Amino acid sequence: AQAIRDAAAQATRWRCQAVIRMVDALQPQAMAEAMREMARQVDAIAMVAGDHPHVNQAVADLHAAGCPTAALLSDISSPCRAGYVGLDHRKTGRTAGWAIRRLSAQAGDVAVLVGSHRFIGQELTEMSLRSYLREWAPDFRVLEAVVSREEEAMAYEATLALIDRHPDLVGLHLPSGGVAGALRALREARSLDHHIVAVAAELSPVHRTALLDGVLDMVIGTPKAAVGAAAVQLLCEALDARGQAWSPRTIDLPFELYTPENV
């Protein structure tokens, strides 16, 4: 949110003001309603949302009304969106698979904790991790994805259950929110006779501490300032093009990699 505020304030070609509203991205009807309400206050919208018919219908309605809408951090399937700004999640998933394969002392089970199956970004991450290990390390077995609903308590319980049910668990990818709960569970499991390689998304103070303590092995981070700038530019260009032909644009930005040695 702050990166978008900064980018709007620093835009030189356009005069912009960012209006930020926090909405539960896991509630599609609430998200769609919030988008329609925001469209009465602003000229264009960038939003983080799950891919759902309610959300896609709202995007189509706003597009018809002349309010461009772009997907931020996780794409949606609506052909009416102005575009997508974020990471290439195929690459993040394969990078997570590469790290787990390289850092694991032995082959075993690998788990992925997603916030919701509705987030296309997290879905692509899981699929791509599977693809990498299928190609390069078929002796690793990727378990069915576990949903945490982006909640710390659910992530904690889910991680404990994974460790209990799968004694051969050697890798855990955490591309979702609520990661603090999963990290707490990993701390409690450090007495295992093997290390569980853990890869997470975004570098928060909690992630930083976990890296330094050896609970996390790698973090795949989003360049927030670049995302904010690209989102503002995309929306402004879409506004400039109203009434003209416009094809949705995909802006994939390079991600950041953090280990205990470079935080």
Core attributes:
about 260 residues; alpha/beta; seven-stranded mixed beta sheet; four-stranded parallel beta sheet
List the topology elements.
Elements: H1 2-10, H2 28-39, E1 45-47, H3 53-64, E2 69-72, E3 83-86, H4 89-103, E4 109-114, H5 120-136, E5 141-142, E6 146-147, H6 152-165, E7 169-174, H7 179-188, E8 197-201, H8 205-213, E9 218-221, H9 224-240, E10 249-252, E11 256-258
Parallel strand pairs: 1-2, 2-3, 3-10, 4-5, 4-6, 4-7, 7-8, 8-9
Antiparallel strand pairs: 9-11
Give a description of the structure.
The chain is of the alpha/beta class and 263 residues long. The strands form 2 sheets. Strands 4, 5, 6, 7, 8, 9 and 11 form a 7-stranded mixed β-sheet that branches. The chain has helices at residues 2-10, 28-39, 53-64, 89-103, 120-136, 152-165, 179-188, 205-213, 224-240; strands spanning 45-47, 69-72, 83-86, 109-114, 141-142, 146-147, 169-174, 197-201, 218-221, 249-252, 256-258. Helices cover 44% and strands 16% of the residues. Helix 7 (179-188) links the parallel strand 7 (169-174) and strand 8 (197-201). The chain contains 9 helices and 11 strands.
